[in-house]
Write a structure and sequence with these properties.
The structure is a single chain. With 288 residues, the chain is α+β, with helices and mostly antiparallel strands. It has a single domain, classed as 3-Layer(aba) Sandwich (L-fuculose-1-phosphate Aldolase). Helices cover 38% and strands 12% of the residues. It is built from eight helices and eight strands. The protein has an eight-stranded mixed sheet, sandwiched between helices. The protein is globular. InterPro entries: Aldolase-II_Adducin_sf (IPR051017), Aldolase_II/adducin_N (IPR001303), Aldolase_II/adducin_N_sf (IPR036409). It holds the Pfam family Aldolase_II. This is Class II aldolase/adducin family protein. Belongs to the aldolase class II family.
């Protein structure tokens, strides 16, 4: 892993010119030419409106996990806070395939795993981990975990990712290996808390002998996309390792720049809008 960077703020171009209509741009991907079709973060008039949005995007995240083959029996859980009652979070129901999650079968739970709204049971491991993270870190809005092939395989090494690409650099200084409760099913609150204290400080977590977790201060969209990206980064790392050739890594400055500009929370949200649009168009049953 690269050492902590000591580049100055001037090394990362934070200030961007406004667009042609004078609106503030916060990402290099926002068009300079105004009036073009481009995803915009929504503004909400009520908690109910924001709740509907978060639930829709939680369902889409579950469907995206199905599309990427992240299902493994009942394992895997995604959560997002309720906007009006942040001590509660929405999550996918126990023993329902990611592809069958819809608005009507989501459940609302508290940090103790008590179902407040919904008919389905909650995943015990899900609420132990997610509940602990949401309770320990009020700023964490969303979190994802699934038992994926490449992520689980790479997690057995107990190593962080090497900065071998722009994609990997999205996790520069923002992912960690956790050895606590390695390989154990996290169904006890004590183990959940010990893991939670590390998860909430990082975008991605490699839980040794277990698998991947991501969390976001921004949105379920962001958490879900970076989970997909983290699994992909693990696959790429394993492929490189299999060659036996020592890879070239990107510089500290490049890794930091990439994380800030192509690996930010906003970029995670923006990437996911491509998936959301496709899923909403091709799987309208998600809204049922």
């Amino acid at each position: 892993m690269l050492e902590e960077a000591h580049t100055s703020q001037s090394d990362v171009a934070i200030d961007l010119p406004n667009d042609s209509a004078g609106r503030k741009r916060t990402s290099i991907y926002q068009p300079e030419q105004a009036g073009l079709i481009f995803p915009e973060k929504p503004e909400f008039k009520s908690h109910a409106e924001e709740r509907e949005y978060r639930k829709q995007h939680l369902v889409a995240a579950c469907r995206a996990f199905a599309m990427h083959g992240f299902d493994y029996g009942f394992a895997g859980h995604l959560t997002v806070r309720d906007p009006e009652h942040p001590e509660l979070y929405w999550t996918n129901p126990m023993c329902v395939h990611f592809s069958q999650v819809r608005m009507s079968n989501l459940i609302l739970a508290d940090h103790d795993g008590r179902v407040v709204e919904g008919k389905y049971a909650i995943n015990r491991a899900g609420f132990v981990l997610h509940g602990a993270v949401h309770e320990e870190f009020p700023e964490v809005m969303a979190m994802c975990h699934a038992h994926t092939t490449y992520g689980t395989a790479w997690c057995t090494t107990g190593r962080e990712l090497d900065m071998i690409s722009q994609d990997a650099a999205a996790f520069y200084k923002s992912h960690a290996v956790i050895g606590a409760s390695a390989g154990a099913v996290a169904v006890e609150k004590g183990s959940g808390l010990s893991v939670a204290q590390q998860i909430g400080r990082n975008r991605g977590v490699l839980h040794q002998n277990h698998g991947l977790l991501t969390c976001s201060h921004h949105s379920i969209d962001d958490a879900a996309f970076w989970f997909i990206a983290l699994e992909r980064a693990c696959k790429q790392q394993l492929l490189v390792e299999a060659t036996g050739i020592k890879p070239q890594v990107v510089s500290e400055k490049t890794a930091r720049y990439s994380r800030e500009h192509v690996g930010s929370d906003y970029i995670g949200w923006l990437h996911f809008q491509t998936l959301y649009s496709h899923i909403a168009e091709t799987q309208p049953d998600m809204f049922a």
